[in-house]
Amino acid sequence: MSRRPGSVDVDQIDWREGISDNIIVTGSLNVQGKVLSQAEEKINKKAISLDGSNDHVLSSDQDDFSFTNGSNDLPFSLSLWVYVGDISSDDGPFISKANFTTGGNEFIFKHANGKLQFFLYDNISSAAGDSIRTQAPSATLSDATWHHVVATYSGNGSQTGMKVYTDGSQTTSTQSQNGSYSRLRNTSTPVVIGATQDLANANRVFEDRIADCVVFNKELTSTEVAEIYNSGNVMNVRNHSAFANVVSWWKMGDDQDVEGSNGIRDYVSGYHATLTNGASIIDEAGLSSDKLDSLNTSTSGSLGIGIESPDEALHVYGNTKLEGPLILKERTYDPDDPAEGSTVLWMSNGNGSGDDGDILIKITAGGATKTVTLVDFSAS
Questions:
Q1: What Cα–Cα distance (Å) separates residue 200 from each residue in 121, 196, 231?
Q2: Is there a domain that residue 159 lies in?
Q3: Lowest-pLDDT range of 291-300, 331-340, 345-354
Q4: Which of 50, 134, 313, 357 has a CA-to-CA distance to 119 between 20 and 30 Å?
Q5: Quick one: which of 292, 90, 315, 107 has its CA closest to 215?
């Protein structure tokens, strides 16, 4: 077989090894196993710049951000990439749901001169009031360096359930309780990245850069923390083993993010955030990142575009553009109920929901599933 410049001959490839060259195939190609084609584009090329004065990123209050069922605490975890130019002069929150002016306090994950601190509050107006906390006695952040930080909570109602991690490893920290902490409360305070809502003191505003912020509704294990640290590379969170437990994922400047109202997209739940008081999107070449997944097939034959592990026959991550018709064939039965936060579209033949020729959509949200007729064929 002749070889063109910049190509490899298929019969000379050891398919058990990764290949990075171009491949030209004349005739059929039968591959048994998984095929992964990776794009050159990085997952993360941007970050949010915060000046340490009053800049922050604001996401409105949602019940999903209050980790309580009204009687007991619930587990959760917070994950971010952070960059501090000078740890000796900075002392501020990475992410919070706290306002000491109104007393609407739930959690703060921050650092004080490079030492990680994680606080949970029983809805009090004083920083020294009813709370549980874990605080690192020494700095694990260093000057002018990107670090991955994680806070986890088991939901056990005690400081013993709180942990912090730096760059994939658990950080030694001291746990304590102030006052008579009972449980977290569901307040109306929004989630703020880079500050607390009240902006009252210098130690309630973060200075420098934050990227890729994720909120989970579970206590990440040490293995899961190491997985999302990803050996120091921002990962595609959709490929994380605990992705089903992600409440919100803000890429902090990448993908579809823009500087405007609700311009910092939440790529999971739609709880979009807004750059506030001068916070801005910047290019960030210094943060290592995985490359985007491009075209992948699973061992079951599923095809993924933009995602490494497709869980449907065709799984597309990202915006989809069609230049041509979308063809739906009649189904003889209704599709299964979609997962929470998902929809399914189909054409009925009259045996299931709808009449012959109707176009229907099934939506699952808030624990309920509803079927709606989009096109009533008989009435058209």
A1: 17, 8, 37
A2: yes
A3: 291-300
A4: 50
A5: 107
Total of domains in the chain: 3
| Per-position DSSP letters for 189-241, written without gaps between them | PPEEESB-TT--SGGGB-EEEEEEEEEESS---HHHHHHHHGGGSB--GGGST
In a domain, 105, yes or no: yes
Do residue 212 and residue 264 come from a single domain?
A: yes
My answer on whether 375 and 231 are in the same domain is no
Asked whether the predicted pLDDT for residue 30 surpasses 70, the reply is: no
Question: Residue 29, exposed/middle/buried by CB under 10 A (0-12, 13-18, 19+)?
Answer: exposed
CB atoms within 10 A of CB 74: 16
Show the DSSP H helices in the chain as ranges: 222-229
Same domain, 117 and 218: yes
Let me know if residue 194 belongs to a domain. Answer: yes
Question: What is d(CA 309, CA 320) in angstroms, rounded to the nearest whole number?
Answer: 18
- Contact 8/23 with Cβ under 8 angstroms? yes
pLDDT of residue 84: 95
Task: Clarify whether residues 213 and 278 are in a common domain.
Answer: yes
Mean per-residue pLDDT of the chain: 86
Q: Is residue 208 part of a domain?
A: yes
